[in-house]
Design brief:
The complex is a heterodimer. Chain A has 4 domains: about 90 residues, no CATH class; about 70 residues, no CATH class; about 170 residues, Rossmann fold (3-Layer(aba) Sandwich), CATH 3.40.50.300; about 190 residues, 3-Layer(aba) Sandwich (Rossmann fold), CATH 3.40.50. In chain A, about 40% of the residues lie in helices and about 20% in strands. Chain A is built from 21 helices and 23 strands. Chain A has a 7-stranded parallel sheet with strand order 12-13-11-14-15-10-16, sandwiched between helices. In chain A, helix 7 crosses helix 8. Chain A is globular and about 80 Å long. Chain A starts with 5 loop residues before the first strand and ends in a 12-residue tail after the last strand. Helices cover about 45% and strands about 10% of the residues of chain B. Chain B contains 31 helices and 23 strands. In chain B, the strands form 8 sheets. Chain B has a 5-stranded antiparallel sheet with strand order 22-21-20-19-23, covered by helices on one side. A 4-stranded antiparallel sheet of chain B has the order 12-13-15-14. A 3-stranded antiparallel sheet of chain B has the order 3-5-4. Chains A and B meet through strand 2, helix 21 and strand 23 of A and helix 14 and helix 27 of B.
């Protein structure tokens, strides 16, 4: 019990000393129930949450294992209260199960009658339930399966869903592994998902989530509905599926603002599903258009609220969630758990990087100083104008130029928020600009050119944030961002973290105006990077020329 | 059916719990495991008995009954008189365990038929169904029983305090009522035959009355009425007042099979005996103790930043308490306890300002600078001695108002006794024994049979819980720290023990690129202070996670650190290199630090005409205003504005005064008023405990007291004594039909001596037969200055 690598804190965080000899064993033992919150260089922080504990229960771990792991690896005595709390929390999962009864259909069953009585008395839950079959069993209307799970989780009695799934309309899909094979962790992710029934696979950007999706589709061998964030992502999914599976152009449909195709494999955007006209969602019927055997949710952490509501009605179908992080900025992690499913696979970002699937990254924050006139302008500006002013300082343009020059020959992205600034930059750098106004065709042409190496430098706006696939970008320069969102940072980092053919280091530059709100936001994002384990440096723009180039 | 039982001992409930002093001796007894055995020399009275006790036995008596030792009794007679007052006997009874109490009851019942007031040990044993020797020894040693040549004799007041129904028995046949005089109770042997013919209703009544209370109300008609009549007719019960019957004592005893108690409890209930590794328990306790120190630290920081207001009731607001619990991430109950402990240790206090608030005291800063062990020892001893029952916070005892933390209602001095009892119980076990909380509480209820069961249970549960928070108890067993606390070792020793048990503090931190510093163990001393200054705590526990931010670094710079000093200290105390972003952060903050200057001046002079200001600066007549130019158009001075205006006017200038917002003000003489006086709370009464040292001196006094003259000799010239002693002595004289000398003040204030034989005492009047005459005279009790047996 003494001298272990783990320190249990009273706020239910676990500190893991990375350099300790027992660290790997400890990490393996705590990973099933604790979420990795921060992974800087020496001490990693895990958090034990009820959701995490229930995830562990769903994966077949019991409280004894969890407590044993804590006691075995802990350096100091573990607070008794925490252990009791863990045991109690874990014991709450599975007291209620949702099952398919041969005689009565969908039922909620309990192993602990008082619990059933307690939830029955709940104002929000009572209307979701039907007749009482016997003292331990109560009917559930199939359409309320999702809502029920949501509500039960909310009051702390998560139900285990054992009711199974409809097989859906069969549609053979196979992976075409010609010249590539699924990576071991992708295979594990697919297996983890398939055995669990429904759930979420957590993989960092660039780790090949699309392939996990394709693998799951092959396992299901059924018609599939894929929900993605936007049209570009939809096209990329389509390309990837055509490349990796036996599916042909005719079998894959796109259901978006512009096209409304419903085919055995249909890729729809969140946007089109969330469209609301006169209080109704006209495109919801898509969900019933076919007898889907599998529903794939790309970027679960961005799933909009209306999709949650629809998902509640889809509980009889297998659901796969793909995401880089379970952390949602709106805090709806619980809905992901109850409506899509528990976490089925998770690999720490750093581990995958260490396996060589993601390029190591060098993160540098470059600080520029505003000119005297700009400082005055900034000082007197309205609060809502300040960020734009600080972000768009011309001082940044020179730095961008320097950096681009330094990385000539490496595929480079310049990413920004403000169109004026991007326009100027594109002009100055003589590089193509992609914004929201660029047509899809043009966008795809430029991406293709970038991919092939024909174009070495792209200036892109926010659109680059989500689900575009630029395999060969190895330098990203961020000139302005959206108020320090952690998600955005993950996305942008993901842009440059794709595996590089030659194992080169990826570079991630953020250009920040000193002493302004821009620096404050940058600090936010940087903290996230450091927490993800990326060492970063802060360099003054003036010192940039003396910087040892960052090639470590 | 069933009248209300007369309470055997009035004044149960919370207040009836023995005060702390009593328990030390109990504790010692328990720890030693034996009761001092003494030969019981036949004595004529309690005083006689006491006179023959050894010093050690007197010490035992005084420690067990501290109320006898203060004020120091003049001699053994006074001691005996004080020991037989009702109040003192009452207190002594409250300190008996269930076994001893049952023995006292049995003794009183057994002694009842005997005119001499003694009982045969065999009778007592029969009533108890067990060997009373040990209990009798203890009763003797606390002076509730003395021995005559024929057996143990309970002190008269015991019989009075226990009331007419000891053990729930009715009055004996001889005393029950005049109507009963015609009957004799049936012999026990005849009883079964008699009961066989009893009507059902009569049987039911008997069943109810057998184990007490022995008095029942009789309905005016119906079978119960007939049953009651049958019982009275056959001499089993006697009428007792209008519409009530009482079960005759002899019958009751026979129905009980000769035993006095339904559940004899001479022996203490067993404690469950789960075992844990004491070393593991100590480690858990060490972590708990560290946690506690961390939480108190945090509490101090929180309340330094934002001291919560003191409500008019003197308590902390419910919302503030909830806020504290949230900030500390503990349950409200624990938050309330923490606040109470901090108050008890003098770490926080009502600051007494106009709008009073609870804030850390200077003592808090001193406390903070001590070693972890010393900090723990201070807090632990404060808890151990505190007359405040923190667990009452948030409850509404007796349906009254909710008790607020830190308020006056939390005070319940008896909780000290509960602490001593509960932890003392655990201390009596071998190390590592972890009895269940239920069994400990069961044992406590046995030990304090007269306490309010619920209040005791609540208090004991709270004590067990709090001991765990403190680190005095862990995994159900008393830790070595807890043991030291119970043994009342001196603070320095306790601190040393705690220093050895608490996880050792670390002398380094790990710095990370996400601007956190992690201390992989507790931080103390200089490094702790530095890290607290330069960073903010993010999470506590085995380790401490600290976050460095621009704000926290600036705080360090504000107190005079330079960027290089901060970085050097960080480098020296870190096992890992200082990450580049941290280095950059510190330098960046230092770069901006002090760009804006703030200073104090009591007045300024401003003018758009720089030349005028230059002239002022140069003017020697204004030298005493000590002007300084801080900007081309602004001068500042340390003189107050009024003076400055005068000085300028005297120098021939014509300044105008302006207010803070720049408008010109017209001066008026200020009127001064004093602040209303702030009411200060009355100081707490202080009382030094009755301890071994005090008792030694008392015993010495007793030994050195001049012998009182024996019977027949001339009475002392003046008679004086405390009213309690006097009244006890007179009552004793009444019951023993003894003559006493009394000092009596007449209406002129002259004191005269009388030899009287008190007959009865009633409502402050003493009826006595005086001297030679046979007629009863009336003496007012309050005029009797003292009494002594002749």
């Amino acid at each position: 019990m003494t001298g272990g690598p783990l320190i249990v804190q009273s706020d239910k965080t676990l500190l893991l000393e990375v350099d300790h000899e027992g660290a790997e064993a400890a990490r393996r033992d705590i990973a099933p129930f604790a979420e990795l919150e921060r992974a800087p260089e020496h001490i990693h922080t895990y958090r034990v949450t009820p959701l995490g504990l229930w995830n562990a229960r769903a994966a077949g771990h019991d409280a004894e294992q969890v407590i044993d792991a804590l006691l075995r690896h802990s350096r100091y005595a573990v607070p008794q209260g925490l252990l009791v709390d863990i045991a109690e929390t874990m014991a709450r999962y599975g007291r209620l199960t949702i099952e398919k009864d041969p005689a009565h259909g969908l039922v909620l069953r309990t192993t602990d009658r008082p619990v059933l009585e307690e939830v029955l008395r709940h104002r929000r839950i009572e209307p979701l339930l039907g007749e009482r079959v016997d003292p331990d069993t109560i009917l559930v209307h199939p359409s309320e399966r999702g809502h029920l799970k949501q509500q039960l989780l909310k009051i702390g009695w998560p139900a285990e869903d054992l009711a199974g799934y409809v097989n859906g309309e069969a549609h053979p899909i196979t992976l075409r592994e010609d010249g590539w094979v699924m990576r071991p962790y992708q295979r594990q992710a697919v297996e983890g998902f398939w055995h669990g029934g429904s759930g979420v696979v957590v993989l960092p950007c660039g780790a090949g989530k699309t392939i996990v999706g394709a693998g799951a589709m092959a396992a299901a061998g059924a018609t599939t509905l894929i929900l993605v964030t936007n049209t570009v992502a939809a096209r990329q999914w389509k390309d990837e599926l055509l490349r990796r599976t036996s599916l042909t152009e005719k079998e894959i449909g796109e259901y978006s603002g512009t096209r409304k195709e419903i085919r055995p494999v249909t890729i729809a955007t969140y946007q089109v599903l969330s469209v609301r006209r006169r209080g109704v969602y006209p495109h919801l019927e898509l969900l019933d258009a076919r007898d889907w055997g599998l529903v794939v949710y790309d970027e679960v952490h961005l799933l909009p609220a209306p999709i949650f509501r629809m998902t509640a009605d889809l509980q009889a179908r297998r659901r796969l969630g793909l995401t880089a992080t379970l952390v949602r900025e709106d805090g709806r992690e619980g809905d992901v758990f109850s409506l899509i499913g528990p976490k089925r696979f998770d690999a720490p970002w750093k581990d995958i990087e260490a396996q060589g699937w993601i390029a190591p990254a060098d993160c540098v924050e470059v600080r520029v100083t505003l000119g005297q006139a700009e400082r005055m302008a900034y000082a007197v500006a309205e609060a809502d104008e300040r960020y734009r002013l600080a972000s768009c300082t011309p001082a940044k343009e020179r730095v961008v130029q320097d950096l681009v020059a330094r990385h000539t020959g490496e595929p480079t992205l310049v990413i920004g928020q403000y169109l004026d600034q991007l326009d100027t930059l594109a002009e100055r750098l003589d590089a193509p600009l992609i914004t929201g106004e660029t047509t899809v065709a043009e966008r795809q042409r430029l991406f293709e050119a970038f991919r092939s190496g024909e174009v070495g430098l792209l200036v892109v706006s926010k659109v680059a944030n989500f689900s575009i696939d630029l395999p060969e970008a190895s330098v990203a320069i961020q000139v302005s961002g959206t108020f320090g969102s952690r998600q955005e940072e993950a996305q942008r980092l993901g842009r440059v973290l794709r595996p590089k053919g030659d194992g080169r280091t990826a570079h991630f530059y953020t250009i920040v105006s000193r002493d302004t709100i821009d620096a404050d936001y940058a600090a936010h994002r940087q903290r996230f990077l450091a927490e993800q384990g990326y060492a970063y440096r802060i360099v003054d723009a003036d010192d940039l020329s003396q910087d040892p180039d960052g090639r470590r | 059916m069933g009248g209300r039982p007369p309470r055997a001992v009035p004044g149960g409930g919370r207040a009836a719990y023995p005060m702390v002093g009593a328990c030390d001796d109990d504790l010692m007894q328990r720890r030693r495991g034996t009761t001092p055995r003494a030969p019981h020399p036949a004595a004529r009275s309690l005083a006689d008995d006491l006179r023959h006790r050894t010093d050690e036995q007197l010490t035992t008596l005084l420690l067990a009954r501290p109320d006898l030792a203060r004020p120091t009794p003049a001699d053994v007679v006074a001691l005996a008189a004080r020991a037989t007052t009702r109040t003192s006997v009452q207190r002594a009874l409250e300190r008996l365990d269930r076994g001893q109490l049952q023995t006292v009851e049995a003794l009183v019942v057994a002694a009842e038929p005997n005119r001499a007031g003694t009982a045969a040990v065999e009778d007592v044993a029969a009533l108890l169904g067990g060997d009373p020797t040990e209990a009798l020894d203890r009763l003797w040693s606390v002076g509730l029983v003395w021995w005559t040549s024929s057996g143990p004799h309970p002190v008269r007041a015991v019989t009075e305090v226990l009331g007419p129904h000891p053990g729930g028995l009715g009055l004996p046949a001889g005393e029950v009522s005049s109507e009963y005089a015609a009957h004799t109770p049936p012999l026990p042997d005849d009883l079964p035959a008699l009961l066989a013919e009893a009507p059902v209703a009569a049987r039911a009544i008997l069943d109810t009355l057998t184990w007490g209370p022995p008095i029942g109300a009789v309905p005016p008609s119906g079978p119960a009425h007939q049953g009651a009549s049958w019982l009275v007719t056959h001499g089993l019960c006697a009428p007792s007042g209008i519409g009530h019957i009482t079960l005759v004592r002899e019958v009751g005893l026979a129905l009980r099979g000769g035993r006095l108690h339904r559940e004899p409890a001479l022996q203490a209930p067993a404690l469950t005996d789960a075992q844990v590794d004491p070393a593991v328990a100590d480690r858990v306790a060490g972590a708990g103790a560290r946690d506690l120190l961390g939480l108190l630290d945090q509490l101090g920081d929180l309340w330094t930043a934002l001291p919560p207001r003191v409500l008019r009731s003197g308590a902390l607001g419910v919302r503030d308490l909830a806020g504290l619990a949230r900030s500390l991430d503990v349950e409200t109950a624990q938050a309330g306890w923490l606040a109470e402990v901090a108050l008890a240790a003098g770490l926080i206090a009502d600051d007494g300002e106009l709008t009073p608030a609870f804030s850390p005291t200077p003592e808090f800063d001193v406390w903070r600078s001590r070693s972890a062990g010393a900090r723990w020892a201070t807090v632990a001893q404060a808890w151990w001695e505190s007359p405040r029952a923190a667990y009452l916070v948030g409850t509404a005892p007796n349906g009254g108002a909710t008790v607020g933390a830190l308020g006056p209602e939390v005070r319940w001095p008896a909780v000290r006794g509960v602490r001593a009892d509960v932890l003392g119980e655990l201390a009596g076990l071998p190390a590592g024994t972890a009895p269940s909380a239920e069994s400990v509480i069961e044992r406590l209820l046995w030990r304090r049979p007269l306490g309010d069961r619920r209040a005791l249970t609540d208090a004991a549960e709270a004590v067990l819980r709090e001991a765990e928070w403190l680190g005095a108890r862990a995994l159900g067993t008393l830790t070595s720290l807890g043991r030291a606390l119970v043994d009342r070792v001196p603070t320095a020793e306790l601190a040393a023990a705690a220093d050895a048990t608490l996880p050792a503090s670390v002398d380094h931190v790990l710095l990370q690129a996400d601007l956190t510093a992690i201390a992989p163990g507790p931080l103390d001393g200089a490094l702790g202070r530095f890290m607290r200054l330069v960073s903010d705590v993010e999470s506590r526990g085995g380790a401490t996670v600290l976050r460095l931010s621009g704000e926290s670094v600036r705080r360090a710079l504000d107190t005079g650190w330079t960027a290089d000093e901060v970085l050097d200290t960080l480098r020296d105390s870190s096992r890992t290199p200082v990450p580049q972003p941290l280095d950059y952060l510190v330098r960046d903050v230092a770069r901006r630090h002090g760009q804006t200057r703030v200073g104090a001046a009591t007045a300024y002079i401003r003018s758009d005409d720089e030349a005028v200001l230059a002239a002022l600066l140069a003017d020697r007549s204004l030298a005493r205003a000590v002007l300084r130019r801080i900007a081309p158009t602004v001068l500042v001075s340390q003189a107050d504005p009024a003076t400055l205006v005068e000085v300028l006017r005297a120098g021939g200038y014509s300044p105008a005064r302006e207010s803070f917002d720049g408008t010109v003000v017209v001066e008026r003489p200020a009127t001064r008023r004093a602040r209303p006086p702030v009411a200060r709370p009355a100081p707490e009464p202080t009382l030094s405990p009755v301890d071994a040292a005090l008792v030694r001196s008392v015993v010495a006094t007793l030994r050195n007291a001049p012998e009182r003259p024996v019977a027949g000799a001339a009475p002392p010239v003046t008679l004086s004594g405390s009213p309690q002693e006097t009244s006890a002595l007179l009552r004793q004289a009444v019951s023993d039909s003894l003559a006493v000398w009394i000092g009596y003040a007449d209406s002129n204030g002259r004191t005269a001596r009388h030899l009287v034989r008190p007959v009865r005492i009633d409502g402050g009047r003493v009826y006595a037969v005086s001297g030679e005459s046979d007629s009863e005279q009336l003496f007012m009790l309050h005029r009797i200055t003292g009494a002594t047996t002749g």
